[in-house]
Predict the structure.
Amino acid sequence: MPVFTLTRNRALLLAAAALAVVVLGSRFVSQPGAAPPVVAATVGSPLAAPTPSAALVVDVAGAVRRPGLYRLAAGSRVADALHRAGGVTAKADAALVNLAAPLADGEQVVVPARGASAPGAAVGAASGAPVDLNSATAEQLDALPGIGSVTAQKIVDYRLAHGPFRSTDDLDAIPGIGPSRVANLKGLVVP
C-alpha cells in the first residue's frame, strides 16, 4: 500500500483548496431567513450605497439643487434630506417646509418655489382645519406630513373596502402606517 507523505507544499495546497471550497460553497448556500442581496443604484444616481434595513429612501423634489432619490438613516429629518439634495435654490420658499419633520420610507419631500401654494394648502392646512379621513381625496391626504402618494392611495382604498374611519387609530391597520405615524397625524386628521 503506497504511503502518502504530507509535505509542507502539499499541506499549503490542501489548505488553499479547502478554503476555496468553503468560500465558494458559502456563496451558493443561503441561510434560512437571510435577506436577499441589495442591488446598488446605477452610476450617476444620487442614491447612496445600500445600508442595513435601518435605512429609508425619500424622494426630494421641487426647488432643490439636486432633486432625486436619497437613502438616509432611520430617524432622519426633512433637513437631512434637503442637505443631501444640495440644499434649496434661491427660488425656494423654505418657510413653507417643516425642516424638523421626521421622514418615513417612501416619502416625498417637496420644496415649493416662492409664490407657489404650500403643499398642504389644498387640505386646509393654511386655515388649520383638520383633514377628514372619510372624505379627503388622495391628493389631499398626500399633502399631510409623512404621507406620500402611495400611502394616500392606500388610505382611500382601505376606506372603500372597509367603510368609514371611526377613529384616527384605525389608520394603524394600513400597511406603512404605524403607531408613531398615527400619533404624528393626530390633530391633523379627523375620522
Remarks:
- Residues 55-111 form one domain.
- Residues 5 and 97 are 76 Å apart (CA to CA).
